[in-house]
Design a protein that fits this description.
Elements (H helix, E strand, L loop, with lengths): L19 H8 L3 E5 L2 E4 L1 H20 L3 E2 L5 E3 H7 L5 H4 L4 E2 L4 E3 L4 H9 L10 E10 L14 E11 L2 H21 L4 E6 L9 E7 L5 E6 L4 E4 L8 H4 L3 E15 L1 H5 L3 E3 L5 E3 L1 E8 H11 L1 E2 L2 E2 L10 E5 L5 H11 L4 E4 L5 H11 L3 E5 L1 H5 L2 E6 L5 E5 L3 H8 L2
Parallel strand pairs: 3-7, 9-12, 19-20, 19-21
Antiparallel strand pairs: 1-2, 4-6, 5-6, 7-8, 8-16, 9-10, 10-13, 11-12, 11-13, 13-16, 14-15, 17-18, 21-22, 22-23
The structure holds adenosine-5'-triphosphate and magnesium ion.
Adenosine-5'-triphosphate (ATP) binds next to β8, β13, β16 and α9.
């Protein structure tokens, strides 16, 4: 991509924001604030979010997930039927269209249950695993942390439908393992943390938490086992266990729940077992905060000059600056692009110093600088964003070096 054709409104001085992530992402031209907790996602953010979603998609497919796209609008009547309309905790977070008696989806247990009813009759039709990437709407009272807590935000939500508890628990564990793979692939060190079932269920739930001083949650963790407890269930921890735990601040990037048959029973979603007996379906729900992940990564990976994004998440792989008056920069850009690398070529007419500043701000993992000096040696200067030192790489070797960095 040539920067002259790319829309990234970077700012020299960004307005103060409610959080580090919002400040950096706005300054680097990834997002633009519309209102508290509401952001427009610009091309750099879209590219990063697509990468995050692709990792999540691959891992959800690997455990048997079927990708769907459900509507954000849901009839209020379905929430009355599940009993959630009368649940104060829930009703206070939903946006409502009074005229049409619809709500904007804050979560999708109801429509998923209704849809699955169309197909499932017998044990042969189970399990069913559906997931989607969607914009969710919630009236968040404390939308003061940038992408960490939006009133409109992207979520991956998965719903599983099983013939019995055993089958559900088995899937629940495979989902937990897949979640840990997702966070690891995104460069995050996530802890599996016990929490209350919240408004979704009476059982425990599992949260996936990333330690971060600016996080909203307080958790007690065991660094050896990478597990822990949310403060809300602290009373249930034995004294012996508690000795091994450290109390830290963290961000919840994912959450998985046992739903039992609360929703399936509400919608009379049942099946016939092998003996012809009508049984309740057991459900689980599994969320990952996609935009919250970009926020979390920005909170964790930056320095005084800007973002330092992990390779798997950065919108481009390399940022190319040409300081020569030749067309050699274009040649290198074409070569690398043809080889399949994602290069942002800064071909704008502006001072070199400003380009260096923006390269750091946007946080692309590799910076390539072609100067008269390196050109004379048929080489280019290569610097990783996370490193203080640069190397000179022969032009004919650049692809090989990049391949190694991104392998
Ligand atoms: P929290 O306790 O942070 O409010 P939650 O328990 O309400 O989260 P879920 O309903 O389980 O969250 O949603 C699944 C995932 O979606 C969460 O783990 C989180 O990563 C993300 N998420 C939830 N609410 C928001 C929000 N307001 N903005 C951005 N991401 C969110
Ligand atoms: Mg919430």
């Amino acid at each position: 991509m040539k920067f002259s054709e790319f829309y990234a409104p970077t700012k020299r001085d960004a307005a103060k924001q409610d959080s580090v992530n919002a400040y950096l992402l706005a300054k680097a031209g990834y997002i633009s604030q519309v209102a508290a907790g509401v952001y427009a996602l610009l091309p750099l953010a879209v590219r990063s979010l697509q990468k995050i979603e692709q990792v999540v998609r691959e891992e959800m497919n690997s455990i048997g997930g079927n990708e769907v796209v459900f509507s954000a609008l849901q009839p209020k009547s379905t929430w009355e039927k599940s009993g959630r309309w009368d649940d104060e905790n829930f009703r206070q977070i939903v946006y409502i269209d009074q005229d049409a008696d619809m709500t904007f989806g804050a979560t999708h247990e109801e429509p998923m249950s209704i849809a699955v009813k169309e197909k499932v009759q017998s044990y042969r039709d189970l399990p069913v695993i559906l997931y989607q990437f969607q914009t969710k709407f919630r009236k968040e009272l404390r939308a003061k942390s940038g992408l960490l807590r939006g009133r409109e935000f992207r979520m991956k939500d998965l719903y599983s439908f099983h013939p019995d508890n055993e089958s559900h628990h088995e899937f629940y564990e495979s989902a937990a393992t897949a979640y840990l793979r997702v966070f690891k692939r995104l460069g995050l060190d996530a802890y599996r943390v016990k929490a209350s079932g919240g408004v979704f269920s009476k059982e425990y739930s599992d949260e996936f938490q990333v330690i971060c001083p600016t996080g909203e949650d307080e958790i007690l963790v065991n660094h050896k086992t990478k597990t822990g407890f949310n403060k809300e269930v602290e009373a249930d921890i034995s004294v012996a266990e508690k000795d091994k735990l450290e109390r830290v601040k963290a961000i919840e990037v994912g959450n998985i729940f046992h739903l039992g048959s609360k929703y399936s029973d509400a919608f009379d979603l049942k099946y016939l077992n092998k003996d012809g007996v009508r049984k309740s379906i057991v459900m689980g729900s599994y969320g990952i905060g996609i935009t919250r992940l970009l926020g979390t990564i920005s909170e964790l990976f930056h320095d005084q000059n800007g973002l330092v994004l992990p390779k798997q998440v950065a919108p481009f792989q390399a940022y190319l600056i040409d300081l020569t008056n030749s067309k050699d920069g274009v040649g290198l850009y074409n070569t690398l692009t043809k080889a399949g690398f994602e290069v942002l070529f800064d071909d704008r007419e502006m001072p070199a110093g400003a380009k260096f500043v923006e390269a750091d701000l946007i946080g692309i993992p590799v910076r390539l600088v072609l100067s008269p000096k390196t050109k004379a040696e048929n080489a280019v200067e290569l610097k990783e964003r996370s490193s203080d030192t640069s190397t000179v790489v022969l032009l004919k070797e650049v692809s090989k070096v990049l391949e190694k960095i991104f392998s």
